[in-house]
Write a structure and sequence with these properties.
heterodimer, A: about 110 residues, mainly beta, six-stranded mixed sheet, four-stranded antiparallel sheet, B: about 120 residues
Chain lengths: ~110, ~120
Amino acid sequence: AQKITQTQPGMFVQEKEAVTLDCTYDTSDPSYGLFWYKQPSSGEMIFLIYQGSYDQQNATEGRYSLNFQKARKSANLVISASQLGDSAMYFCAMSSGGYQKVTFGTGTKLQVIP
Amino acid sequence: GAVVSQHPSWVICKSGTSVKIECRSLDFQATTMFWYRQFPKQSLMLMATSNEGSKATYEQGVEKDKFLINHASLTLSTLTVTSAHPEDSSFYICSASPGNGETQYFGPGTRLLVL
């Protein structure tokens, strides 16, 4: 069974500052993928970034980077230069076993303060 | 990028009626689509995996006779909530992958309110 844990129900960050959203995972499969999604109040799930378990380098997408610590089973999301539009729920997720089924964490609500 | 649409975006219906929600992959084919349900301030919970040309695979605790899933083509999956009741009120969201095994793209979701 696979499990995703997000221990921060809510976070505040000052505009233009960087913020790290924590995510740890557990799986017995050697091959897996880690995702981060953003869900604004409108409800849509917006894909942010992906990290494969065999990827040597940490994934980056614009202001988003994934701090992948395989031995610690952590996949924290780092958002640099926060913007007001970054205020949303952020979900960490994982797929494993060569199957596309995705398990989600409980989410972290990020609020960017002007 | 890959685009997934859902229709309708909002549904308000009376208790006892059935509601059909469509999920379409607009610019790619998807042999597998997923249906999730999200209650307020909670995470997404997978309901079922929709397989093109075969029966859906339901998660434990999800009533397959209540939540009918049809994957009619490589670009369309439908979820029908039969005899809806107020406790079925939720946000239903589908996802699909282009098949690269890496990224799932989500539809915009459907908010269902059963009166």
